[in-house]
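input
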Amino acid sequence: MKIRKARKEDLKEVAKILMEESVKKPYNEKFTPGSAKKDVLEFFKDSLYVATDGEKIIGFIASHIVNSDKTKAYIDELWIRSNYQGKGAGKILVKFIEEIYKKKGLSKIRLTTKKKAKSYSFYKKLKYIDADLVYMEKRL
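output
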């Protein structure tokens, strides 16, 4: 597995991963090909890296430095194709992005996840802790 900066020609494949993986429980996101591409295009503005197995993109991580506090970064998205989950790809991507921000002198990295998602225990294993923040939403 290799990690590289995403290229514009990766847009379709990264959007496909986002659509296919985020529709599953507990996320239940419903992207169209167009809306997924639109979301992924936004990630190109900051840091978007892909994990590859040969020429095949198997996952991606998108992150950014927080505008209001340049000592903090935020992981926006981390998605790995189902058949590669549990094989270390996600861990490698997270460690990769942590190193980038550590070298830039940042002191914290944040993210959100659902407690019922597999990603919650995944991040716990990587020593992420529950912060004193509460993510709330309301269906309109």
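quick obs: The mean pLDDT is 92.
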